[in-house]
Design goal:
about 550 residues, alpha+beta, GROEL, domain 1, GROEL, domain 2, GroEL, 3 domains, 3-stranded antiparallel β-sheet, elongated
Length: about 550
C-alpha cells in the first residue's frame, strides 16, 4: 500500500457526525418533538389531525398517540417517542408532560454546553436534581381517600384536558366504578388488572350514551332465530368444547353398502348431538356460550328447549365471563355440572347499528366489567376510548400508590423552588445543571398558561410568590387566569404521574446529551464489499 492511501473502515455512503454538531442536531430534533406536542397540554390545549399515507385520519390531543402516529426518522426524535410510550405504559397519563420536560431539559442544557460545561457534568447534575425533585413530590403528597368522591376528582383531572372533556362527569364516574369493581386487595397492596375491564366501541349515539355494564359484552349473536332474544335469571354454561360431531385427527374412510346403514349412521350422529344438548339441559343451564362451534342440528335442539346459545366466542371474552358470572370454563362435556354454571340477571341480544351483540348483565359482584363506548363518529369514539383508558389508569395508580399531588403546575413550581435552594448546597458545576433543571421544570405551568391565552410570565411570578409564602398547592387556574389552590379545586393526580415523567424525561435527556458521535450506515446495495484498504478494485503496490 502506498503511504497516505486512505483506509476504508465504514461502508461507502455512511454518514457520520461528531462532536458539537452531532450533539446540536440531536438536541434540535428532541426540541422539535417537544414543540410539536406542546400546544396540546392542559384543559385549553388544542388537538392534532394526523393523516397517514393511506389517508386514514386520527384526531387527538393525547401526546403518546400523536407521537406514535408521526412518521419519525431521526434517531434522537425516536427516543423522545419512547419517553411518551414509557409514561403511557407505566401510568397511562402525563405523556405530553414527559415529552415537553425532556425537550426543555435539553433546551436548558444547550445553554450550559455553549458555556463549555461538559455533558457528563450536566448529566450528573440532572440526575441529582431528579432525585431531589421526586423527594419534593413525596413531601407535598397527600394520602388518597379511597372513596368514590376522592377518586372522581382524580379521574376528572385526567379527562379535563381530553377531547371528551364535555362529558367528563359521566366518563369519570364510569372509570372509578370500573376500577373499584375489579380491584383486588392482596395484603396491603391493591392490584388492578386492566384485562378485566373490557372496552367495546360502537359508533352511533352520543358520548353521553357510553355506559358501564356490570357484566360482559360478547361480540356474537344467538345462533338460531328460534332461540329466545333474552333470558332472565340466566344460568350460563361456559364451554371450550364443540356441540358437534368430533372429527378424527387422522384420515379415515367408512364404507356403507346399503341405505339402512346410512340411516343408522345419521341417527347415531343425531343421538350424540341430542345427548350433548340433554346433558346441558339437565344441569339447568338456559344459556350456552362456547369457544367452539355448534352443529346445525344441535342449534335446532337448543332452540326447541328455549336455550340461548352463541358460538365462536373469543377466549378472552370467555375468561372475562368466568370472572363476571362466577362460572367455570368446561373443556369436557361429561364434567359439566350445575355448580359449574355462572349466573346473571339477564342475557339478551342487542342490535347496535348493524351489529348484533350479546349482553350478559346484572352479575352479582363481578370481577370483570365492560364499558360500551359510544360517539357520533368513528374519530370521536376512538378519542373517548383513549380518554377512558387514561382515566382508568390514573384511578388505578392512585389506589395502588395511595398518594396524590396537586396538578395545574403546582408541583412543578414547588420543585423548582426547592431545587434552587438545594443547588446552593451542592456547589461546583453541577449546581449550574440543577438550576437549569429547575428552570426547565417551570415549562409545565408556563405552557398551561400559554395554551389558555394567559400572560405566562405574570402567572409564573404570582405562583412563585404564593409558593414562597408556603402555599404549596397553588397552581394555574386556566379559566380565571390566576393562581388557585389545586387541591380545593379538585385538580389532583397520582404521585406516579409526576415521578415517572421526571424519570423518563431525565433519562432521555441524559442519554441524548452523552452522544457525541452519530454513525448512520447506508443500506447495502447488494454489490460486493470493497477491500478494507488500498485502491478500490485495484491491487496493492
Amino acid at each position: 500500500m502506498m503511504p497516505g492511501q486512505p483506509i476504508f473502515i465504514l461502508r461507502e455512503g455512511t454518514k457520520r457526525e461528531s462532536g458539537k454538531n452531532a450533539m446540536q442536531n440531536n438536541i434540535n430534533a428532541a426540541k422539535a418533538i417537544a414543540d410539536a406536542v406542546k400546544t396540546t397540554l392542559g384543559p385549553r390545549g388544542m388537538d392534532k389531525m394526523l393523516v397517514d399515507s393511506l389517508g386514514d385520519i386520527v384526531i387527538t390531543n393525547d401526546g403518546v398517540t400523536i407521537l406514535k402516529e408521526m412518521d419519525i426518522d431521526h434517531p434522537a426524535a425516536k427516543m423522545m417517542v419512547e419517553v411518551s410510550k414509557t409514561q403511557d405504559q407505566e401510568v397511562g397519563d402525563g405523556t405530553t408532560t414527559a415529552a415537553i420536560l425532556a425537550g426543555e431539559f435539553l433546551r436548558k442544557a444547550e445553554d450550559l454546553l455553549n458555556q463549555n460545561v461538559h455533558p457528563t457534568v450536566i448529566a450528573s447534575g440532572y440526575r441529582m436534581a431528579a432525585e431531589k425533585a421526586k423527594q419534593v413530590l413525596n413531601d407535598i403528597s397527600i394520602p388518597v381517600k379511597k372513596d368514590e368522591k376522592g377518586l372522581l376528582k382524580i379521574a376528572n383531572t385526567a379527562l379535563n384536558s381530553k377531547g371528551a372533556s364535555t362529558s367528563r362527569t359521566k366518563l369519570a364516574d364510569i372509570a372509578v366504578k370500573s376500577v373499584l369493581q375489579v380491584a383486588q386487595e392482596r395484603g396491603e397492596k391493591t392490584l388492578v388488572d386492566f384485562d378485566d375491564i373490557q372496552l367495546v366501541k360502537k359508533q352511533g349515539g352520543s358520548i353521553e350514551d357510553t355506559r358501564l355494564i356490570q357484566g360482559v359484552i360478547v361480540d356474537k349473536e344467538r345462533v338460531h332465530p328460534g332461540m329466545p332474544v333474552f333470558v332472565n335469571n340466566a344460568k350460563i354454561a361456559l364451554l371450550n368444547v364443540a356441540l358437534e360431531i368430533k372429527k378424527p385427527e387422522f384420515d379415515t374412510s367408512i364404507r356403507i353398502e346399503d341405505p339402512e346403514s346410512i340411516m343408522k349412521f345419521k341417527k347415531q350422529e343425531e343421538s350424540i348431538l341430542k345427548n350433548m344438548v340433554e346433558k346441558v339441559k339437565s344441569t339447568g343451564a338456559n344459556v350456552i356460550l362456547t369457544q367452539k362451534g355448534i352443529d346445525d342440528l344441535a342449534m335446532a335442539y337448543l332452540a326447541k328447549d328455549g336455550i340461548y346459545a352463541a358460538r365462536r366466542v373469543k377466549k378472552s371474552d370467555i375468561e372475562k365471563l368466568a370472572k363476571a358470572i362466577g362460572g367455570e370454563i368446561i373443556t369436557n362435556m361429561d364434567d359439566l355440572t350445575e355448580k359449574d354454571l355462572g349466573k346473571a340477571e339477564k342475557v339478551e341480544e342487542v342490535k347496535i347499528g348493524e351489529d348484533h351483540l350479546t349482553f350478559v348483565t346484572g352479575c352479582q359482584n363481578p370481577k370483570a366489567v365492560s364499558i360500551l363506548v359510544r360517539g357520533g363518529t368513528e374519530h370521536v369514539v376512538d378519542e373517548v376510548e383513549r380518554s377512558l383508558v387514561d382515566s382508568l389508569h390514573v384511578v388505578a395508580a392512585a389506589l395502588q400508590d395511595g398518594k396524590i399531588i396537586p396538578g395545574g403546575g403546582a408541583a412543578a413550581i414547588e420543585i423548582a423552588m426547592k431545587l434552587r435552594e438545594y443547588s446552593a448546597s451542592v456547589g461546583g458545576r453541577e449546581q449550574l445543571a440543577i438550576e437549569k433543571f429547575a428552570e426547565a421544570i417551570e415549562i409545565v405551568p408556563r405552557t398551561l398558561a400559554e395554551n389558555a391565552g394567559l400572560d405566562s410570565i405574570g402567572i409564573l411570578i404570582s405562583l412563585k410568590k404564593e409558593h414562597a409564602d408556603g402555599k404549596k398547592n397553588m397552581g394555574v387556574d386556566v379559566v380565571k387566569g390566576k393562581p388557585i389552590d389545586m387541591v380545593e379545586l379538585g385538580v389532583i393526580e397520582p404521585i406516579r404521574v409526576g415521578k415517572q415523567a421526571i424519570d423518563s424525561a431525565t433519562d432521555a435527556a441524559v442519554m441524548i446529551l452523552r452522544i457525541d458521535d452519530v454513525i448512520a450506515t447506508k443500506a447495502s446495495s447488494g454489490g460486493a464489499p470493497k477491500p478494507p484498504g488500498g485502491r478500490p478494485g485495484g491491487d496493492d503496490d
